Amino acid sequence: MKTASLCNGLSVLPLLDHQSPKHKRNNWLFAGPLRAGQRAATAMSLIQSAKLNGHDPYAYLKDVLARLPTHKNSQIEELLPHRWQPAQT
Fold first, then answer.
1. Alpha-carbon distance 16 to 12, whole Å?
2. Distance between CA atoms of 55 and 25, rounded to whole angstroms?
3. C-alpha to C-alpha distance for 56 and 73, rounded to whole angstroms
4. 14-27 confidence digits (pLDDT tens)
5. Spatial separation of the C-alpha atoms in residues 66 and 61, rounded to whole Å
């Protein structure tokens, strides 16, 4: 059984692979306070957008989160899934 978790600083949400899609949807009913649910929805939106744009969500998020501290605010659109290009190493 593969297990991962999503931490928003207030609570940890378990994501289990063996659960049916219905149970996965119901897990989000218990995301904690409203702001925690909003953060979880934002994270899931980024992950799904990355998938729809043909990116590996893990590679996308890892790269974007590494770039954010030094990326210019005026160029933040470059980090959106539909414009993102992996960093050149």
1. 13
2. 23
3. 24
4. 554 455 555 555 55
5. 8
